[in-house]
Design a protein that fits this description.
Radius of gyration of chain A: 27 Å
Mean pLDDT of chain A: 73
Number of helices of chain B: 7
Helix content of chain A: 40-55%
Largest sheet of chain A: 4 strands, antiparallel
Radius of gyration of chain B: 16 Å
Shape of chain A: elongated
Number of strands of chain A: 6
Strand content of chain A: 5-15%
Oligomer: heterodimer
Shape of chain B: globular
Distance between the termini of chain A: 59 Å
Structural class of chain A: alpha+beta
Low-confidence stretches of chain B: 78-101
Structural class of chain B: mainly alpha
Largest sheet of chain B: none
Number of strands of chain B: 0
Largest interface: A-B, 45 and 53 residues
Distance between the termini of chain B: 44 Å
Mean pLDDT of chain B: 82
Low-confidence stretches of chain A: 72-132, 212-223
Chain lengths: 254, 162
């Protein structure tokens, strides 16, 4: 009986055991058409492999290296990493200060790669927020995604029409980042941060534990200096005004 | 530490695998980055001494499925027509070769996901059937039949020259 295509393919790929291999070789010897089919399988394998082979020679983007070396605890920058984590942890004390945002310079950490910053912030969020289903932040596709009430606020909320409910998530600034994504700063009792519209969802780019004292987050602009620094770091152009904000929302953030 | 260093070594292969799944180089790198982020978060679930490459392929493949579902929900066009040609440094090659290489990318893009990932693991990454089946969490027979169908489809699309 003539071997089927799956068997010929497995033979071409070197996947058969010696007994099966001998049987296929005997069949091939008796039928040139079978040999051609094996050759076609090998040629296809070579062609597909060759097509993607150049990727191996490409330079790996720096952001990947940064991601992996930032996570490494015993590299030269370990001290700096620690400093930033401590910096974030002590943020709750700092946030009570009311110095005007415009007077602030970007802190040194804002110059680090976005990835490293995200990683550290991720640790902070992990500490403050339950990251499972139903929470304001969900871990999806390897990133932090807004869920639940936070996602709804980001979808529908307008800074010009804040909710009457003091417990609701409040939208701060809406702007476009350098990748052209819509981003919005938000704060609530549980959480403050920045989320950007990405592939139909709100990807949380920065987040810190929220402000438990209600006075601060009712002020006109986000009281969180780190979030504001993040906005300053990401923004392309000016924030949206109320009219533009509404138009962007009504257009589904596309 | 060993974990990060091993991931660094794997990076070129992970990028290649991503490229064979997604076609668009930017999407591929986004997928690769998402997989790295997930791996770093889930590092405790990697058993030292087991194959890190298989573990990473599995993470990336699962992420890609999630993303493909999300894309389908958003009813977005899956692939711009020219995207398949962007693999490698096309500018370095003669025109005829670029067109031929482009055909592979386009043909791969036409495959159903389950055939494409089988082709990617075996033909592109060079894995044994058993390792590919483990990563995809399917029996060997299923892997073989997906692979054979995927290859037949590729041959049909690319013509007998393949």
């Amino acid at each position: 009986m003539s071997p089927d295509d799956a068997t010929l393919m497995a033979y071409a790929d070197g996947e058969l055991d010696p007994v099966e291999r001998a049987a296929v070789e005997a069949a091939i010897a008796a039928d040139p058409e079978l040999a051609e089919r094996v050759a076609a399988h090998r040629a296809l394998r070579n062609q597909v492999n060759a097509h993607f082979a150049p990727v191996i020679e490409e330079d790996v983007p720096d952001r990947f290296r940064a991601l992996l070396t930032a996570a490494e605890p015993d590299v030269d920058t370990a001290g700096a990493e620690d400093a930033r984590v401590v910096d974030l942890a002590s943020f709750r004390d700092q946030q009570r200060r009311t110095e005007p945002v415009a007077a602030r310079r970007l802190p040194a950490w804002a110059n680090l790669t976005a990835l490293a910053a995200t990683l550290v912030l991720g640790i902070a969020v992990g500490r403050f927020v339950v990251g499972t289903n139903g929470g304001p932040i969900q871990l999806r596709d390897g990133g932090m995604q807004a869920g639940g009430e936070l996602a709804m606020a980001l979808d529908k909320g307008l800074a010009s029409q804040p909710s009457a409910d003091p417990a609701a998530t409040r939208i701060g600034l809406t702007y476009k980042d350098r990748d052209g994504r819509f981003c919005r700063s938000f704060d609530s009792a549980a959480l403050s941060g920045i989320a950007c519209r990405d592939a139909g969802a709100w990807r949380v780019e920065q987040a810190v534990g929220g402000q438990q004292h209600s006075n601060a987050y009712r002020q006109a602009s986000s009281g969180d200096s780190r979030i504001m620094a993040g906005v300053t770091d990401m923004i392309a152009g000016a924030p949206l005004n109320a009219q533009q904000e509404r138009a962007a929302r009504d257009n589904g953030w596309r | 530490m060993a974990f990060e260093s091993e991931l660094l070594v794997l990076l070129p292969r992970l990028r290649r695998f991503a490229r064979s799944l997604t076609y668009d180089p930017a999407d591929a790198d986004d997928l690769c980055q998402a997989a790295l982020e997930r791996a770093l978060k889930a590092r405790d679930s990697w058993a030292e001494g087991t194959k890190l490459d298989s573990w990473m392929y599995r993470i990336m493949r699962n992420l890609h499925i999630d993303q493909a579902r999300a894309r389908n929900r958003a009813a977005r066009t899956f692939m711009p027509e020219e995207a398949g040609e962007h693999v490698g440094h096309a500018g370095d090659r003669d025109v005829e070769n670029v067109v031929m290489l482009g055909d592979v990318g386009r043909a791969m893009a036409q495959l159903p996901q389950e055939q494409r990932e089988a082709v990617a693991l075996v033909l592109v990454e060079g894995l044994a059937y058993k390792d590919a089946a483990d990563i995809l969490d399917i029996p060997m027979g299923t892997l073989t039949s997906r692979l054979v169908r995927g290859r037949q489809a590729l041959m049909n699309m690319m013509g007998e020259a393949a």
